[in-house]
Design goal:
By secondary structure, this protein is α+β, with helices and mostly antiparallel strands. It contains two helices and eight strands. The chain has an eight-stranded antiparallel β-barrel with strand order 1-2-3-4-5-6-7-8. The longest helix has 22 residues. The N and C termini lie far apart (52 Å).
Length: 122
């Protein structure tokens, strides 16, 4: 009886660990370099940089009913004037965008089509 209970508790622990690992799959970490903009992810926060300009914000990755992932960004610019970075962000990263990640996790693509920006992890 003790062995059965131990086996059942071990199975519950393993299933719980699997759910924990799967739920962490919607977060990015590290620096991803793009053609125009670099993105540095940490937890649910992101810092976009273009040259010396930096813009901080948050991001969220979601899955739709078809299993396709989308990413959305929320950047806050505290300056009164729109910077070139803010303008680039408004053009490239606004709204819910299609999101994909390479199997090795070293490349992400935000958007769709031939011109969708790709970012490589450094």
């Amino acid at each position: 009886m003790k062995k059965i209970i131990t086996l059942m508790l071990s199975a519950v622990l393993i299933v719980g660990m699997m759910f924990t690992l799967v739920s962490c799959g919607n977060k990015l970490s590290g620096l991803y370099e793009g053609t125009l903009i670099d993105l540095e992810f940490s937890g649910s926060k992101v810092v976009a940089s273009l040259g010396d300009e930096k813009l901080e914000g948050t991001y969220k990755i979601e899955k739709d009913d078809d299993g396709k992932k989308t990413i959305s960004f929320d950047f806050v610019d505290t300056s009164e004037e729109s910077s070139s970075l803010e303008k680039a962000i408004d053009e490239l990263l606004k709204g819910k965008l299609p999101f994909s990640e390479s199997e090795d996790g070293k490349t992400i693509t935000i958007g769709s089509g031939v011109l969708a920006p790709k970012f490589t992890k450094k």
